Amino acid sequence: MDSIIVTGNGPLKGQIPIAGAKNACLTLMPATLLSEEPLTLTNAPRLSDIATMTQLLQSLGAEVTSMQDGQVLAMSSHDLDNHVADYDIVRKMRASILVLGPMLARDGHAVVSLPGGCAIGARPVDLHLKAFEAMGAELELKDGYVHAKAPGGLKGGEVVFPFVSVGATENALMAATLAKGTTVLKNAAREPEIVDLAQCLRKMGAEIEGEGTETITVQGVDRLRGATHPVVTDRIELGTYMLAPAICGGEVECLGGRIDLVGAFCEKLDAAGISVEETANGLKVGCKNGRVRAVDVTTEPFPGFPTDLQAQMMALMCTADGTSVLEEKIFENRFMHAPELIRMGADIDVHGGTATVKGVERLKGAPVMATDLRASVSLILAGLAAEGETVVNRVYHLDRGYERVEEKLGNVGARIERVSGS
Ligand code: UD1
After folding, report:
1. What is the rounded distance in angstroms from the CA atom of residue 195 to the CA atom of residue 27?
2. 241 Cα: distance to centroid of ligand 1 (angstroms)
3. CA angle, residues 328, 374, 89, in degrees to nearest 5
4. What is the residue-averaged pLDDT of the chain?
5. Shortest-distance Cα residue to atom 32 of ligand 1
6. CB of 127 shorter than 6 A to ligand 1
7. Phi, psi (degrees; rounded to nearest 5) at 165
């Protein structure tokens, strides 16, 4: 297994290109299952999660061709000859459940294994299933698989989500495009990835209104056509690299960055004393020498502070001046990075969903272990601010969501290298 070695150093300077969003791409790819015509995605990120989704779609009979070094994905689902999403693929990635809505909507039946994914909480899929039931599907859970049927096709209905779920909103939205009649999704997620999905589906001929608000209305159509769509910028990769100069000083321009993708996050950077400037090509982040101010953070659905940036923000707060309180409201077990940061000299006290971080002057490099995707990258950020060498083990989590992290950070002056393991 590969490791990443980071040696703490001084200010960073330069530009980091931000890739297309992993989470958007993982919902845009299954959208190919809705149409017999080709769907092409541009600005796709080169990640192992994308390879897993490719493998899953291919197992269902879709063709997926990766072009231009993986940045273009040409997909065609003309002949779907299998409607069973197998456990062996699905267990690797929770987003696999997103093939259920499209297959059910197009062909009236699908069997999908219950998913796995990052170990950051229970993460059931009950909201997805309730949404399909509201559209007339019959569901049965058997041997770890969801067996879904809608013999006469899905019917439009009202889906009221009891709380916000990104994945359930995406799955229901895709299914509703081919349901008979009107579907109204209430308390829908408003994430930029949902807006991106709706825009792509509209290019394919879907009739959708209200994406980006809490009520999305979909008028079902008989069929969808092919389209070409660029994947929206990855706001989590963006936020992560914005924290690099914040944590060890310097000035970095994140190419492709947009304030509207990271508004709540930028407010916290501002409160911490970090400058963010919009440029013609993205966002420039600067941090002069000296410690940042401690700020409190509560994770919320968009447009609130994203849970996917909580671990990275904690890494910054470890060396802030003062005490910060980080509250995790989305996932119940998402402080697994805290014990590793403590091994690097951080002062963190976790109680249930709250972590209290007392800033220390300096972290010290240590061997640490990545336990999930965002935790992995938070340890790399912490390593940038630490004295000496930090060895981040088990970086396969990282490769699920960050392409060429050592190259992107190395190009702005970080001392970082990947060491291949057995
Ligand atoms: C997506 C993102 C993930 C991000 C999360 C929250 C993808 C591929 N992943 O995950 O990176 O951290 O949004 O922004 O886009 N829940 C249920 N029942 C359900 C569905 C969800 O109880 O049927 C719970 C989850 O356990 C969690 C909360 O709802 O506590 C929010 O989860 P959700 O928004 O669905 O996250 P994902 O779509 O899995």
Report:
1. 11
2. 23
3. 110
4. 95
5. 165
6. yes
7. -130, 125
pLDDT above 50: residue 118: no
Closest CA to 265 of 317, 305, 318: 305
CA of 121 to the centre of ligand 1 (A): 10
| Calpha distance 304→319 (Å, rounded) | 24
Q: Is 181 in the pocket of ligand 1 (CB under 6 A)?
A: no
Q: Is the CB of 307 under 6 A from ligand 1?
A: yes
pLDDT tens track for 326-365: 999 998 779 999 999 999 999 999 999 999 999 999 999 9
- pLDDT, position 123: 66
Q: pLDDT tens for residues 216-274? A: 999 999 999 999 999 999 999 999 999 999 999 999 999 999 999 999 999 999 999 99
Positions of E strands within 103-256: 109-113, 138-142, 145-149, 158-160, 182-186, 207-209, 215-219, 227-230, 250-255
65 - beta bridge partners? Answer: 74
Q: What is the pLDDT of residues 51-67, one digit of tens each?
A: 999 999 999 999 999 99
CATH number of 22-230: 3.65.10.10
Over range 76-86, report the average pLDDT.
93
In this prediction, residue 22 carries a pLDDT of 98
3-19+233-419, what's its fold? UDP-n-acetylglucosamine1-carboxyvinyl-transferase; Chain (3.65.10)
Adjacent-strand bridge partners of 340: none
Which residue's CA is minimally distant from atom 35 of ligand 1? Answer: 165
Cα–ligand 1 centroid distance for 168 (angstroms): 8
Reported as a pLDDT band with limits 50, 70 and 90, residue 198 is very high
Closest atom, ligand 1, to C-alpha of 193:
15
Q: Is 131 in the pocket of ligand 1 (CB under 6 A)?
A: no
Enumerate the CATH 3.65.10.10 domain ranges in the chain, comma separated.
3-19+233-419, 22-230
